[in-house]
Design the sequence.
């Protein structure tokens, strides 16, 4: 790994867009989680795909590791260059290249952020629905197969991408997919790159599906006597085919924290939050149907609001749930698990997770994108020498429980460093071997984000 | 390719489920199109994944080609064993393994047909929406990345599959994906196998997403003075976000043929056919919105029906459009093109296709899944020595026009033999090289459906 040779050769290409400054390297040493941290040897800020192609050819020649960096919001250590080398910061590649309103699609560079895109699209009456909460980049969302609260209605980033431009390990620029809604020709390279976490190529441009901003949006909140009742209501709502845009769960502890933090006039009990998109009549009908079903499962006080202010307050509270939980446990660290199970096992998974929390002696709040079966246990751990380790152990337990219930080790945060040990258990040895075969064929020198996805 | 050694070794494993009978080999020599035909050396009818694993290990050892065969409805020669060897007929693997109504999913063997599955699901109040028209197998649909009239609302088979079981070239049994709605862990092997046309593995089991049968279904038909008006109406309907379940176009020629064949009380003019799914109120509202938009684009006599009989007659006529066209041109052969363009280019693509038809001197009818930009030109060619060749040349022209308009060489029929020459033009050399790299890594001896997808 002759990184110094790569840096020397890259310097004339990138000028002051190549930095070995300690502070800049430090900000590229880690994402947002408390996972591993390691500084890259240099940070490079490319402005074009062609520059990245030149750089990767250099890196391959010198066997220099390359790790892409978007907004740095990864929770699983994806952006940490664990083997050193180059951190490739795509923040300057933030152009919105085209918006096609007749086709409901757009083309963006990988460094465009989710909020930047939606602000730009507002005048077109369009929006991009995938919302992981954080203001991550579209490239990062593709690399980690991100999703969020709207996935139950609009799908994840996997369904949102029509095509990609990427640079492979040897510097080849590849275009995958295209502008059409579907194509029945050739291997689905687009889906292969989505979720590959920078280990197969560096995504530089994305063709994205868009949606019209709904004519009407309504929100609702409903408390339940039991978690089981809330989950059963979700199952029936999904079976009934009500096209809910969002259906989110928060447990009693999270509600108590959010009520205090966001000054909500609600009761601390298991709660479902809804959002409905459609025509005014359609939204009202969806809400009525959802209310009937929640009532049949012990839901009380179904509160429906179409006013923007009330909706915004509710969803801001949902997005602030992390900060609300932290405020409820001052002096504690926080660690978010991310698992998903078939929805028929969701009540069991949440109950098992709660038992594990109790046994651990730690505090935790549970929230979930429950229409998909995806939930997060936000573990609050004391600032003691063993606090983080206890949280980590609890996370391992909860992931194992989800896998035993037919689930996946991550619904939306990805593998990175933190979930590598579960890949074998979730997918089995043959699938893992097939993944490694593909990796070896496309990046034989393992220069692309080494140390991620696979345990070495 | 020591096929005789493979047959000798496989005979004790399969007994009379291995056939070298001429008639059976002949039925496995081709799909439904007038593409190439070649008999396999033997046809094997496996009953389990384990049997296929044993067989593929044998085939790999002897370098014997293996081509999977489902219902034989391929229009692009996928099932033709162009290099001889074994035709693997999956029709005995037709068990519906599980239906999970809480999770809206099911697990089936690859030989289960679309209609078989939907008949089975009816008592659960569930349905599987992907409908390519033909009663193809679920395995075949996965292998060719099939879709159909419902794709505009429910997606293609790509979105419908949660996980797969497949046998790789060396006999390894691999499970991909799982039962969860989304997973952010590992390469998307499921999507890699979907559309790989039997060249990367033999799909044996599929975990599928299902949907609840809608409470209400409505259909509508609307004629237009011009094709442009019809297409512009489609674009506005999609932009408005009306969740149409089906939106199909038929040109004047097709309508004349269908009116005669299916005894429809309609006018021969450019026509849109709609289907709406939802609540009774929702369906009525969708229809009203669609009617308003069609009227603004010159649509006349928007006829809405919720009665099952009227709907069934309309959609049966749509599904019979191939036979209607053939009846209108007795003594002619028929050849269906399959292209897709961004919907903003759909009117231009159809106009160019019509010009090409006129220049060719052949007859043609045009139908399309226009919500996706996907359309078919059904070419009717005379039974003369050069008839089929003229149809083939016209098809090449139409595909080229679609590619020049940012489209794909196939929206749903796949590559097989017939579209191989367009793969480079649609995807470019780097993507094609990446596909070949994956193929070589996973099937180094090229025993899986050789001669498909890639030009040698």
Sequence:
């Amino acid at each position: 790994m002759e990184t110094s040779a790569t840096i020397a050769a890259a310097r004339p290409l990138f000028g002051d867009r190549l930095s070995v400054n300690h502070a800049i390297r430090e900000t590229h040493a880690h994402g947002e989680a408390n996972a591993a941290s390691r500084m890259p040897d240099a940070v490079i800020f490319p402005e074009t795909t062609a520059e990245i192609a030149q750089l990767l050819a250099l890196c391959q020649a010198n066997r220099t590791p390359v790790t892409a960096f978007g907004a740095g919001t990864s929770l699983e250590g994806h952006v940490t260059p664990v083997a050193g080398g180059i951190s490739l910061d795509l923040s300057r590649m933030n152009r919105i290249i085209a918006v096609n309103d007749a086709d409901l699609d757009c083309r963006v560079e990988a460094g465009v952020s989710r909020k930047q895109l939606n602000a730009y699209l507002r005048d077109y009456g369009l929006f991009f629905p995938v919302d992981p909460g954080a203001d991550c980049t579209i490239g990062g969302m593709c690399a980690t197969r991100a999703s969020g609260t709207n996935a139950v209605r609009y799908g994840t980033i996997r369904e949102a991408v029509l095509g990609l431009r990427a640079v492979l390990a040897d510097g080849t620029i590849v275009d995958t997919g295209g502008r059409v809604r579907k194509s029945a020709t050739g291997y689905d390279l687009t889906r292969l790159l989505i979720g590959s976490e920078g280990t197969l190529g560096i995504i530089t441009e994305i063709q994205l599906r868009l949606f019209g901003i709904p004519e009407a949006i309504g929100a609702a909140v409903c408390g339940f006597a039991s978690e089981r009742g809330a989950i059963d209501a979700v199952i029936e709502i999904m079976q009934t085919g009500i096209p809910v845009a969002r259906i989110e769960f928060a447990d009693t502890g999270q509600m108590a924290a959010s009520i205090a933090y966001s000054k909500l006039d609600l009761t601390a009990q298991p709660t479902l939050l809804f959002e409905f998109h459609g025509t005014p009549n359609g939204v009202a009908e969806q809400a009525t149907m959802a209310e009937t079903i929640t009532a049949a499962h012990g839901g009380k006080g179904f509160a429906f609001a179409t006013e923007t202010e009330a909706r915004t307050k509710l969803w801001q509270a949902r997005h602030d749930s992390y900060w609300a939980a932290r405020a409820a446990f001052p002096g504690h660290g926080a660690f978010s698990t991310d698992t998903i199970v078939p929805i028929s096992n969701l009540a069991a998974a949440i109950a098992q997770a709660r038992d594990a929390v109790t046994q651990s002696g730690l505090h935790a709040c549970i929230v979930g994108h429950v229409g998909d079966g995806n939930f997060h246990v936000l573990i609050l751990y004391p600032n003691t020498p063993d606090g983080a380790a206890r949280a980590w152990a609890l996370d391992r337990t909860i992931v194992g429980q989800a896998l035993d219930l037919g689930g996946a080790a991550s619904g939306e945060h990805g593998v990175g460093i933190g979930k590598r040990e579960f890949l074998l258990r979730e997918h089995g040895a043959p699938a893992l071997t097939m993944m490694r075969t593909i990796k070896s064929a496309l990046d034989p020198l393992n220069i692309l984000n080494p140390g991620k996805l696979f345990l070495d």
About this structure: Residues 420-442 of chain A form the longest helix (23 residues). The mean pLDDT of chain A is 96. Chain A is about 40% helix and 20% strand.
